[in-house]
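S1.2 Input.
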Amino acid sequence: MENINKPTQPNKVHERILSIDFFRGFTMFILVTGIASLFNGMVEQGKAGAIIILINKQLEHAEWNGLYAWDLIQPFFMFIVGVAMPFSLAKRLARGDTGRKAFYHALIRSFWLLVLGFMLGSELNYIGFQNVLAQLSFTYIIAYMLMQKDIKWQLVISFALIILSDLIYRLWSVNGFNHPFTPDHNFGSWFDLTTTGYLSPGHWVSFNAIPTTAHTIWGVVVGKLLLKEWPQRKKVLVMLIVGLTGVIFGYCLNPFIPIIKRLCTSSFMIVSGGYCLMAMAFSYWLIDIMGFRKLGLFFAIVGMNPIFIYIFFNLGGTQLLRRMTEPFIPRIFFWTNEIIINMITIVIVAAMVWYICYFLYKRKIFIRL
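S1.3 Output.
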């Protein structure tokens, strides 16, 4: 197999792979538009059939052990950041930036991700690493420092972080926190209680920033793969085979190492990493091979402003847009039921969110760190 660490041809550096922004935009769009509330409302009103109940279950986090589709949102986001990193670095070096200058920019970006993560994730004067951006500030800089290393070392270090985390949880001996897979009685909970004096109500732990670094590192590896002069179908096949292997192996680990997103257990990391690769393979096949460019651009418009859309969502922007529609939608569609009104509201809010992103896109306004 051709070495994917081999430098990319200069004329390929500036080619944008639309499927990357499509993947990121689709993930963000699902997160911010509130589609989950539609199915949840139908279930709560007792008007849902078996299929709707199944879909609704997939649009929520597993309470502890298990994996639903909604649990993949964060891994997808962390992964796709890694995929974009080799493209960003290649462009910076091509325009004349030195390696030192590029690294300085990465440090600054990591710092602002941390600041924003603390701001958006703070509650009751508590600051921790449970927020996605705060964790990404750590995974991003580690993945960046490894980006120029050989792929074998990137993979070795990524799996070493996962194994190390697993061993710490299993071997931690502090009384009351020596139960590796029990909520609030594990090493991650001890770490949060010791450093902040606070336990997350949802059992999320800051230490997740360590194992989930693997998601961003694996994204970097895939980004380097996509930059290569390989045939497109070969790239898809590699991502698909490795991804499917990860999913199968991760689920096989579940009887021995439970799949727990809230602790980022090794089985969860491998399963979710496999899904990341399969989703990227599908996106690349659909957009860049099959040529569904208009569909790709629709979601890419959101994906080109991920920081803005994430901050907009966390500051209640989506809820504000929904409140703006509430005086009108029920009156215009008074002749129908509450479920249909909720569905129409979600579609209109989603359209408003998309248009805001489109407005920024047309004016080439991209919020970057």
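S1.4 Remarks. The radius of gyration is 21 Å.
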